[in-house]
Design goal:
Layout (H helix, E strand, L loop, with lengths): L5 H16 L2 E9 L4 E9 L7 H18 L6 E6 L10 H6 L4 E10 L2 E12 L2 E6 L6 E5 L3 E6 L3 H21 L12
Parallel strand pairs: 2-3
Antiparallel strand pairs: 1-2, 4-5, 4-8, 5-6, 6-7
Length: about 190
């Protein structure tokens, strides 16, 4: 789910080695059509799952240079590099374990029990299946094969906001401890 199309895949192949060298993890890549194509790259730091403006600029600069040479898209495009945000897409099986206990929305590539969309609290991963305690349905847990999930994302809740703020504060404290000349303002989210 990191990608949807062959072009997305080609860009991911270019972006992943660059991201790793920068200490980043690619969350998702999408090439979106419009008057001018947009290449959307979502990434986060491997160390703490956050992303600041400097991280975005570094990845954008390095990826732009390689895309200029490799030319994966024939027509003009705009490169957009950002953090995945609080309502982040869940694109790897590991994401469903990492965010267990949080509210999410899943959209499948096929009908299951007459529907494609599921909303509820993530309840873990077992043998390649994502478990989700369905919203509004007492004692109802769906176990969905990961490969059936077309799109998934966290839904913003007070608990998720609190966790995000705590992670940001911890990263700021670590940054200041590692480099006393860094101010907390430089560690803001992108």
């Amino acid at each position: 789910m990191k990608t949807k199309t062959n072009i997305d895949e080609r860009i991911l192949a270019l972006a992943e080695p660059i991201a790793v060298d920068l200490g980043l993890h690619i969350v998702r890549i999408r090439v979106m059509a419009g008057k001018r194509r947009t290449v959307q790259v979502m990434a986060e730091r491997l160390s703490d799952g956050l992303m600041n403006v400097e991280n975005c600029a570094d990845l954008s600069r390095e990826l732009s240079a390689i895309m200029e040479v490799e030319d994966p898209i024939a027509e003009a495009y705009m490169l957009e590099v950002s953090s995945p945000g609080l309502d982040r897409p869940l694109t790897d099986l590991e994401d469903f374990t990492k965010y267990e206990g949080y509210l999410a929305r899943l959209e499948l590539d096929r009908l299951v029990e007459g529907r494609k969309r599921f909303r509820g609290v993530l309840a873990g991963v077992e043998e390649g299946h994502v478990d989700i305690n369905l919203d509004g349905e007492t004692d109802s847990t769906a176990s969905i094969p990961f490969e059936w999930i077309a799109e998934a994302k966290l839904l913003i809740t007070d608990e998720l906001i609190k966790k995000g703020q705590e992670a940001k504060e911890a990263a700021q404290k670590k940054s200041v401890a590692d480099n006393p000349e860094t101010t907390p303002e430089k560690e803001g989210d992108a």
